[in-house]
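Aim 2 progress update. The chain analyzed this quarter is reproduced below.
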Amino acid sequence: MRLLVLGGIRSGKSEVAEALVAGADRVRYVATSPETPGGTPDAGWSARLAAHRARRPESWLTEEVGAEPERLTDLLTGAKPDEVVLVDDLGGWLTAIYDGAGDWSDPAVADGPIGALADAVRGCPAALLVLVGPEVGLAVMPATDAGRTFADGSGLLNQRVAAACDGVALVVAGEVSWLRGGELVGNAGSREQTEPLAVPEAPFVFESAGAGSVLSTADGGDLLSLAPGLELPLPDESTAAEAVERLLTLKLNGAGLGGLVPVVRFAGGVQGRPDPRPFQQPRVIVLRGDRTGGFAAGDSAGAADRRLEDVVEGTGTIAMLAATAGASVQAIDCPEAGPAELHDALDDASVDAALTLGWRLADAAANEGVDLLVLASCGAGSDAAAAAVVAVLTGGEPAALLGRVTNAAGFVDDAAWMHKVAAVRDARHRIRARSRDPHAILSMLGGGDLAVATGLLLGAASRKLPIMIDGPVGIAAGLVARDYGAQTRHWLLMPDHGDNPTVKLAADVLGTTPFLSLKLALGEGATALAALPLVNTALTVAAATPAAPPPPADELSEQERIEAEIQRVVADSPTAEMPYVKPSWEV
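Predicted structure tokens:
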């Protein structure tokens, strides 16, 4: 768990932060303020530091990084999973950064270190990390250049670190207001606190290899009631069009971005700006939802277990591609679905719970500063369930939608393929006279992972959060989510359909056009992760390339040059001055 405590001078923010870690036997206290800011001794400042030291319990281990602010990122990334770390405070760290650079005239001097620190906070494996920071944005504008530089840099630092934290508190006059994540800590840090905050055993969202956990739909919480006819926001079409028009004005080498132009258009719309930026905080959400019965023919729940373990442990294809793309990873264990060819895959209550979980995952991601979601899946029988949903919603033929089945040894298993096709056809026959509303589709055919994916897409659209999809679960969920709220599909970006017949048909019906043809077969979510660096490259080129200089006022356009050349050739022609001679047939 990562918490940020903000407050003004003498607000009590340090005392609140210390109360948050009071329940730990040992605390690693990281002091960031230099002993002599700017190299000038200050008796008052020294007294403040002495008061802080005197307040710390003897069991706490203190690390002084004031003279070496760059050490803070190393301390955070190198923390142990069972450690409790308290950093006090970010203002002292920022001061040391500017002092070390010797430049207090430009707040951008700290942009690089701030980004590195935010990444270190996000990837910190400590069981509990609490950071203290000064909130100076509520004060009047400082009268000096250095004061304005610090205020601007501090505001950026607080934004970036807050986006990387699970909870953010604001302390005013000793009173605590949780801006986000208060439910994680209860009344910890407040004056009414009776028990210290319990230190969690492991982080919920994991950001790097080797640290992770799995969330399930059994984690509780009030259920949302989702029904067709949801009014969801749309991307900004005007800025999407402006983003494409802007490309024509850039000083690009060659013919431009080619097939990646749709990426720039999409990003312009979802970001609401004509110069869209690369996605900085992507997150992969891996859904594991197994089936029983014919849908899972040829698949193995054990293989799905191993794929999920690879994700949680930071190994395997998805984890490696996520690390390359700079994406955090979240694993979701969805409820198992029954044999849909015999009876409904899930009961109504389980569908509601799964939809609610998906919506709240998107909501939490948006609150944490995630700017792009990538949907991945690894459940047994998920391809057949997606094919069944697509077949019902599009009229497709199951035999044409289901690709070949490959067993654990890597050989094609035609018997398992026929079993899957028969199961999908039986399921369609079983529900032929029943409702086709989205909730019924998820209950009858979809299963837990498809229901969570549908809720995720709806929740993401509600928070204007784009999602990359590339496989059958994602595209089938897109069709179902469309029937809840038609605006959902406009927030979907598909890099490639991978020649999967289910994905190709559903994408065509949904109007989601892929911009690549990689034909990767590394599991759902892998293609999107492989394409994400290319997406960000296109956005970087589009955002950073300067505009082409305007042509000189006296320079003719291409059309004008062509017309001038024609006029010159006609004027220079030997026949230009020849008198008219009447042809013989006119005589």
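Residues 348-367 form the longest helix (20 residues). Confidence is low (pLDDT under 50) at residues 189-220, 574-587. These observations will guide the mutagenesis experiments scheduled for the next reporting period.
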